[in-house]
Description:
By secondary structure, this protein is α+β, with helices and mostly antiparallel strands.
Amino acid sequence: MKAFRIILFVLVLSSLLQSCSKEGARIEVSGVLQQQGITTYQYGTHICGGYALRSNTIDLDVYVGQYVTVKGEKVPGYPVDGGPDYLEVEEVY
């Protein structure tokens, strides 16, 4: 019975962790913000911390070359073509 409870606990915990990493999840990433350039995956205007970025509300060009922390949500349907996760940036600091 104890083994069953442990297995059940592990399954529930695994499910919770997967739901935290799904598309639409709020992500915080730190690093030097750079312009995207030419890529094989062709999405995003900038990159930071291994994520492709876009923003409809913030001019990311202002922060190019600076160490920043960005907050945003994963864009549904990405990554594609072997590219990185894709974030819609909502905050930069």
